[in-house]
Automatic annotation (TrEMBL):
Cellular localisation: Endoplasmic reticulum membrane
Source organism per UniProt: Aegilops tauschii subsp. strangulata
Membrane spanning residue stretches: 6-25, 37-57, 94-123, 233-256
Keywords from the UniProt entry: Endoplasmic reticulum, Lyase, Membrane, NADP, Transmembrane, Transmembrane helix
Classification lineage: Eukaryota, Viridiplantae, Streptophyta, Embryophyta, Tracheophyta
Domain Fatty acid hydroxylase: 44-184
Superkingdom to which the source organism belongs: Eukaryota
Descriptive protein name: aldehyde oxygenase (deformylating)
Length: 534
């Protein structure tokens, strides 16, 4: 509680200082909106006075006497956050406030002050302080190698974190130049900066190409809120006021953005990244948006090709049959691709099939003629399990039935009404089910599902399976965020399918229809690599 108060104190202090200035110098009440000359004066004073004075004061605060009394508090946050910037004692805030006022006072004294300058300077100052404490490296890893002079002009989050942990170097405000002059510059600062940034800049070996689910879910990414992203996604109260802002971002992303990195982890020493196509779930249902989405996916695949990525796994709607034939479109258009394009659904089918209890003799399936439905039906009839395939299209049903061996065809049955499923306790749901349709199931039925979004569990006397997912191997490192509503370390089965494709070094593209013969092969390979069912 004391901590929260201390975090706000400096705001009150700064308002008091500004109010005092306005009171003492009435002319400040009539400043113009903007004056470029004033900016030059302030910049000069910042470099010539604020920076060196802060450096001197900060080193003073690290003296034995002052540190324990005044500065230990600021260093008490073992892991800095943007709020740590404002977490200090009143004396420190007073010193910082005065140093901040200097350039503004100078510009005003020269008759060049402006309202714009006051806002621009104070906000930039706060922004840079928060940036330095944010504990996420923001600057590109190669930047300070290609432009070495920048090392002395701007600090980085890594740079200030070194100060927080070691307390022996990197004392400057924003400009490492003064650490250089004072002999307190940690020479490892930029090497460490590059390493901290590594997961973002290195070329990955594996990419899971996702998309945004909806506006609410768009806030569930580590670069918006790390804490929130580190827990499974759920709609929370604090998201509601932010929703309009996220909506605005949706339009901006739709208009301008290209595929971007969401997160990454390491497995067996290789970098795996999750990229997002800048499209939201609902875009996939807009007929006019189809070409734009395929262009985005194609661009991402070609970028991965240039980077030397080995496998790109298409997530969720990015491999929609109607959109691009489960990835077939890209493979046909670019026959020379070295990167393997994978829909990962062979493993999805395997996960669903392995959830069906041994001894089951009959299942009922909706979405039965879809890509997954077809593969599941063909697999089950080989095991002499009767599959009631719910479809109104006899033509599509017969096409699948003919694929089965002659002696197994009798196990595939077309049904057109939910009544037929009344006695069957194993439902495999591949198409949205209304509460009304769910009412046909007898008590004790289990609903397995591969429908996106998952159906809502209306029946209290039945059980509902989750979307097919698998747990990554124990040696996966750096899993800081959750994949949608899944637990940390658990990924969608198609993601895991892509990982298996990469680990096994399969040479084929996994696009279009699922090869039923490969279901067991992929499942065994996943288990062999320590990828486990949830
Ligand atoms: Zn600090
Ligand atoms: Zn310090």
């Amino acid at each position: 509680r004391q901590g929260v108060g201390l975090r706000d104190n400096f705001l009150i202090l700064q308002i008091m200082m500004a109010a005092t200035a306005l009171y003492a110098f009435p002319s400040l009440r009539h400043l113009p909106g903007w004056n470029t000359g004033g900016l030059a004066v302030a910049a000069l004073l910042h470099v010539a006075a604020t920076e060196p004075l802060f450096y001197a004061a900060h080193r003073g605060f690290h003296g034995a006497h002052l540190f324990a009394r005044y500065h230990a508090l600021h260093h008490s946050n073992k892991v800095p956050t943007p709020f740590t910037a404002g977490f200090a004692t009143p004396l420190e805030h007073l010193v910082l406030g005065l140093l901040m006022a200097l350039p503004l006072a100078g510009a005003c004294a020269a008759g060049l002050g402006s309202v714009g300058l006051a806002f621009a300077y104070v906000l930039s100052f706060d922004f840079l302080r928060a940036m330095g404490h944010c504990n996420v490296e923001l600057f590109p890893g190669g930047l300070f190698r290609s432009l070495p002079f920048l090392r002395y002009l701007i600090y980085t989050p890594t740079y200030h974190t070194i100060h927080h942990t070691g307390k022996k170097a990197n004392f400057c405000l924003f400009m490492p130049l003064f650490d250089r002059l004072g002999g307190t510059l940690d020479p490892e600062s930029w090497e460490l900066q590059r390493k901290n940034r590594a997961g973002m800049d290195e070329a990955p070996d594996f990419v899971f190409l996702a998309h945004v689910v909806d506006v609410m879910q768009s806030m569930h990414v580590p670069f918006v809120m790390r804490t929130f992203a580190s827990t499974p996604f759920a709609v929370r109260a604090f998201l509601l006021p932010l929703w309009p802002i996220a909506l605005l971002f949706m339009f901006m992303v739709w208009a301008w953005s290209k595929t971007f990195i969401i997160s990454y982890y390491h497995l067996r020493g290789k970098l795996h990244q999750i990229w997002a196509v800048p499209r939201y779930g609902f875009h996939y249902f807009l007929p006019f948006a189809k070409d734009g989405i395929n262009d985005q996916i194609e661009l991402a695949i070609l970028r991965a090709e240039r980077m030397g990525v080995k496998v790109v796994s298409l997530a969720a709607l990015n491999k929609n049959e109607a959109l691009n034939g489960g990835g077939t479109l890209f493979v046909n258009k670019h026959p020379d691709l070295r990167v393997r394009v994978v829909h990962g659904n062979t493993l999805t089918a395997a996960v669903i099939l392995n959830e069906i209890p041994k001894g089951t003799t009959e299942v009922f399936m909706t979405g039965a003629t879809s890509k997954l439905g077809r593969a599941i039906a063909l697999y089950l009839c080989r095991k002499k399990i009767r599959v009631m395939m719910m479809t109104l299209s006899t033509e599509r049903f017969q096409k699948i039935q003919k694929e089965a061996a002659a002696e197994d065809q009798q196990y595939l049955v077309q049904v057109t009404k939910f009544q037929s499923a009344e006695q069957c306790k194993t439902w495999i749901v591949g198409k949205w089910l209304s509460p009304r349709e769910q009412r046909w199931a007898s008590p004790g039925t289990h609903f397995h599902q591969f429908v996106v979004p998952p159906i809502l569990g209306f029946r209290r006397d039945c059980t509902y399976g989750k979307l097919a997912a698998m747990r990554l191997p124990k040696d996966a490192r750096g899993l800081g965020s959750c994949e949608f509503s899944l637990e940390r370390g658990v990924v969608h089965a198609c993601h895991a399918g892509g990982v298996v494709h990469f680990l096994e070094g399969y040479a084929h593209h996994e696009v279009g229809a699922i090869d039923v013969d490969r279901i067991d092969v992929v499942w065994e390979a996943a288990l062999k690599h320590g990828i486990r069912p949830v």
